[in-house]
Design goal:
Length: about 500
C-alpha cells in the first residue's frame, strides 16, 4: 500500500502581527499612527520587523522620485517573504498609492492592497478581509475552485475620495510616557506650486473645526503628552475657506490661542507653513503665546525671484527676508529652518548664486536641501531647460557647506547656556542614551543615568548634554547647561 503524502501545514498565529514603514513627512507619520491604532483596536499586534509580520504596509511619499524608488525597491525586496510565507498581506498606502494606483500591481504581483490618501479610514477593513481570505487558502478551505494561492489573486485599488473620508480615527496609540504627538488640522493644498504633486495626491484644502482639534489635544495632554505639533500641507492657511476672521485674527491664530489655553500643555509647534500665511496676527502670536515654541520652519525654495515666479511661490526674495526679520523681532532667539530646491528648470548659475547669497545672509539654524526631481503631471516636469544631474549635485553639495556652517554656529551659541530639553525617549542612534529637543528644536543626546550636574557639549553638528535636574524622561522638560567640546566632527 503506497504511502500517502502528508499535507504541508503552515502555522499562522491567531493574533495577526503588522508592520508599517513610513516614508516622507510628519503627515505620513500621523496617518501611519491612525492605521496602526485602528489595527490594534481590532486585535492586531505591531512588530518592528517585516519578517515577523502577517501584514506589511508601506506608507509612501511622492514628493521626490527618490522616495518613490525607495518604496518600490523595498516592496520588491519583500517579494522573497511572500514566497516563503504566502499568508502575509502586502500593501501600499498614501501618496504614491494615490498617484500611481493600479499600475503598482503590474510589476509586483505579491501586492494585495493599494490604498490612497483618502482611504486611510478603510485600511483596517481591507486588511481584515485579506488576512481572512489568505488564511483560508493556506488552511485549504478556500473558495470552491481555488485551492492554491496562485489560483486566487487578491487585489484592491482604492484611491477615490468620498464624503467623510477625513473623519478618520483621531485617537493616537501612545507609547508609555510619550511626550510628544502630532495632530492633523488641515488636509490638502490649493497652492499648486509647479514642482509639487501634493494637490494631486492629497486633494483640495479641508480643515477640521477648532473644537474638534482642541478636544483631541486635551485628550492627548490628559494621557501625558507635553508637546503637540499641528500638521498640515500648508498649516498656517488653516480654515481660510471654512471659518471667519475674528478680531482681525485668522482661523489659524484663533486655533493657536485655543490650544494654548489647554492646561498641562507645555509646548506648541506647527509645520509646515507657507510664507504668504504669515500675516501680522501670526507674527504677533509668537510675542504673545509663551507655549508657542521658538522655532519656525519657513520654506524658501529659492533666492531667485525669477525661479520663485516659475515655481508659483507668490512671494519675492525681498519679502522673504523682511518676513524673517519681523519673526526674529517678535521672539528673541527664535530658530528658523527652511527647505530649498536647487536645479529647478531654468535655474542659471546667477539664479543659484542669489539663493546661496540669501542663505548666507539669513543664517538659518538648519535647512533641507533638495535637488529638483521632476514629478509626473506637474507643470515643472514639462518645462524647458531641465538641469543636468551633475549640476544639481554640485549646487546641492555647495549649499550644504553653507548651511552646515550656519547650523554649527547656531549650536555653538548654546554653549555655556542653560536650556530646557523635553526628553522624548531613547536615542535612535544609541539606545544607551536618551534624547530630547530644546524649544528651538535642537536635538540633545544625554546619558540615561540621573546626575544633578549638567552640561551641553557641541561638536558643531550635534549637541550632547547631561541634566541639571534629575531626568524624568518623557514627562517633564529638564534644564541643561552647555560647554564646548574640543573634538568637533560631522554627524
Amino acid at each position: 500500500m503506497a504511502e500517502r503524502a502528508l499535507p504541508c501545514i503552515i502555522f499562522v498565529p491567531s493574533m495577526p502581527k503588522f508592520f508599517i514603514k513610513t516614508y516622507g513627512c510628519q503627515m505620513n507619520e500621523r496617518d501611519s499612527e491612525q492605521v496602526a491604532h485602528s489595527l490594534v483596536t481590532r486585535g492586531y499586534k505591531r512588530v518592528e520587523n517585516e519578517s515577523d509580520a502577517d501584514v506589511v504596509l508601506l506608507n509612501t511619499c511622492s514628493v521626490r522620485d527618490m522616495a518613490d524608488q525607495k518604496a518600490l525597491g523595498k516592496m520588491g525586496m519583500l517579494g522573497s517573504i511572500a514566497k516563503e510565507r504566502p499568508h502575509v498581506v502586502f500593501g501600499f498606502l498614501g501618496c504614491m498609492a494615490q498617484a500611481r494606483g493600479e499600475s503598482l500591481l503590474k510589476n509586483l504581483p505579491h501586492v494585495d492592497l493599494v490604498v490612497g490618501t483618502q482611504k486611510f479610514h478603510r485600511v483596517a477593513d481591507y486588511v481584515d478581509e485579506f488576512v481572512a481570505r489568505k488564511r483560508a487558502v493556506v488552511a485549504g478551505v478556500a473558495e470552491p475552485g481555488h485551492s492554491r494561492m496562485d489560483d486566487l489573486r487578491f487585489s484592491i485599488v482604492d484611491i477615490a475620495e468620498e464624503p467623510g473620508s477625513q473623519e478618520t480615527i483621531r485617537e493616537q496609540q501612545l507609547t508609555p510616557r510619550q511626550a510628544t504627538a502630532f495632530v492633523s488640522i488641515i488636509q490638502g493644498c490649493n497652492m499648486h506650486c509647479t514642482f509639487c504633486i501634493v494637490p494631486l495626491t492629497r486633494g483640495a484644502e479641508r480643515s477640521r473645526s477648532i473644537d474638534e482639534i482642541v478636544r483631541e489635544v486635551r485628550e492627548l495632554v490628559a494621557r501625558g503628552v507635553k508637546e503637540v505639533t499641528l500638521l498640515g500641507q500648508i498649516v498656517n492657511l488653516y480654515g481660510r475657506h471654512e471659518f471667519p476672521k475674528i478680531d482681525n485674527k485668522s482661523p489659524f491664530v484663533q486655533l493657536l490661542e485655543a490650544v494654548h489655553r489647554i492646561d498641562g500643555l507645555e509646548r506648541l509647534r506647527f509645520t509646515s507653513p507657507h510664507p504668504i500665511g504669515f500675516r501680522d496676527d501670526l507674527i504677533n502670536a509668537f510675542a504673545r503665546l509663551p507655549k508657542l515654541a521658538e522655532h519656525v520652519h519657513l520654506p524658501l525654495q529659492s533666492g531667485s525671484n525669477k525661479i520663485l515666479k516659475a515655481m508659483h511661490r507668490a512671494y519675492t526674495a525681498e519679502k522673504y527676508v523682511d518676513l524673517v526679520r519681523r519673526i526674529r523681532q517678535a521672539r528673541k532667539g527664535i530658530a528658523i529652518t527652511t527647505d530649498i530646491i536647487v536645479g529647478f528648470p531654468g535655474e542659471t548659475d546667477s539664479d543659484y548664486r542669489r539663493t546661496r547669497d540669501l542663505v548666507e545672509r539669513i543664517q538659518f539654524d538648519n535647512a533641507f536641501i533638495f535637488r529638483y526631481s521632476p514629478r509626473r503631471d506637474t507643470p515643472a516636469a514639462e518645462m524647458q531647460e531641465q538641469i543636468e544631474e551633475p549640476v544639481k549635485e554640485e549646487r546641492n553639495q555647495d549649499l550644504l557647506l553653507v548651511v552646515n556652517e550656519s547650523a554649527r554656529r547656531a549650536n555653538e551659541r548654546l554653549v555655556g547656556r542653560d536650556v530646557e530639553v523635553l526628553c522624548e525617549g531613547r536615542s535612535k542612534t544609541n539606545p544607551a542614551r536618551l534624547m530630547g529637543r530644546t524649544r528651538t528644536n535642537k536635538i540633545v543626546v544625554f546619558e540615561s543615568d540621573e546626575r544633578l550636574a549638567g552640561e551641553i557639549q557641541s561638536n558643531g553638528f550635534s549637541l550632547y548634554g547631561t541634566p541639571v535636574l534629575p531626568t524624568s524622561c518623557a514627562s517633564n522638560p529638564e534644564s541643561f547647561r552647555g560647554h564646548r567640546t574640543d573634538s568637533p566632527r560631522r554627524t
